[in-house]
């Protein structure tokens, strides 16, 4: 979504106090971002109304961390918009349970049929029968057969001359005879929706009486995916959506609107071409992705414009060979101060929140002066090799800096965490060509 939204979010997160004006600004950005993503106007209006109501209400204003609370509200409302967690697959009380895949050509129906079969066996101990009903492209039958072979699962096909509805009829008999408890029907798609296709799919539905009709849509097609979903749902009354290719560079606009427009839940997410790349769809994860995608580029730009190039190079070198000391830490702190609030910087590093220890080691601006004092009370040797700072040295440093032993302890821990994090980051960027990450 819009970069502006992310900036607003960053601004508001660090705030100790949120005013009504902040909330207004925030909701305005959210609104723009959603409209930009073509989310239905009425949906946006409702959503913004709810966010405002909750954000200006007690829930946020009386909280200790109102900034974060606003983000939480926005996130919750966004995930609600995408539906609750809905990855349950229907089970027929008279097996086999039939699932029909529909969607445009190239959306990922055939692949998803294979993935879903794999999922059902692995997670629910089921034994599915795959049915090839795309009779227009011989290659499509072959494709499903190949997937079946890879999975060591049966595939039912009758070539390209039998009508799909008939194929399904035979497939159901076969499934009963072989005690397959699920029947997954892969159907044909078109480049565009047309009546002939819909007619055929309706015939298949008549015969198959599926418990689930999964509409497979390609997340990469963005707002087109929403229109496609709407028409398919009108004609076939689907039971759920599988959003594929979410491993690509999609920002989630489609995910946001599909549930809102069709009323049908997104049940699964396709995360790659491999057969195990199918996951239950997690709306709240998607909301985080939409709101908090780490903005590495901005971070790097910021760092580059504020830090002396030469110093940055030296620092980077030190990070690489891990000779980073408390003196560098002190030096770096003054550089970092020029860049603005530390938490802002941290929030721009994707995954930084996940690095263990970092959460507890949140660096508070107000503590910076204490940190300076503590480091200045260390001896030269101690700054180079913090490992030698034992209990009595910690006491001495605390007294010297006018802080407490626990503050000294915390700083040393933070320093070690930071070193660890740097190691992870340099490892992360080492492989990539070009410049590494600079702080
Ligand atoms: P169909 O025409 O709807 O049956 O689509 P296919 O199953 O043949 O898939 C079309 C292409 O999309 C194939 O190259 C798949 O490997 C690819 N594909 C399907 N799902 C995903 C996914 O979740 N991620 C990625 N990256 N590729 C996918
Ligand atoms: Mg196919």
UniProtKB/TrEMBL annotation:
List residues binding GTP.
103-110, 186-190, 244-247
Is DNA-binding one of the keywords? no
Q: What class of enzyme is it?
A: hydrolase
Q: What is this protein called?
A: Signal recognition particle protein
Determine if GTP-binding is one of this entry's keywords: yes
The subunit structure is: Part of the signal recognition particle protein translocation system, which is composed of SRP and FtsY.
Q: Which family does it belong to?
A: Belongs to the GTP-binding SRP family. SRP54 subfamily.
- The residues covered by the SRP54-type proteins GTP-binding domain are 265-278
Keywords, sorted A to Z: Cytoplasm, GTP-binding, Hydrolase, Nucleotide-binding, Ribonucleoprotein, RNA-binding, Signal recognition particle
Domains as described in the record: Composed of three domains: the N-terminal N domain, which is responsible for interactions with the ribosome, the central G domain, which binds GTP, and the C-terminal M domain, which binds the RNA and the signal sequence of the RNC.
What chemistry does it catalyse, as a reaction equation? GTP + H2O = GDP + phosphate + H(+)
Classification via SMART domains? AAA (SM00382), SRP54 (SM00962), SRP54_N (SM00963)
InterPro entries, alphabetically? AAA+_ATPase, P-loop_NTPase, Signal_recog_part_SRP54_M_sf, Signal_recog_particl_SRP54_hlx, Signal_recog_particle_SRP54_M, SRP, SRP54, SRP54_GTPase_dom
Principal localisation = cytoplasm
Localization of this protein: Cytoplasm
What HAMAP family does the record tag this protein with?
SRP54 (MF_00306)
What's this chain's function? Involved in targeting and insertion of nascent membrane proteins into the cytoplasmic membrane. Binds to the hydrophobic signal sequence of the ribosome-nascent chain (RNC) as it emerges from the ribosomes. The SRP-RNC complex is then targeted to the cytoplasmic membrane where it interacts with the SRP receptor FtsY.
EC annotation from Swiss-Prot or TrEMBL: 3.6.5.4
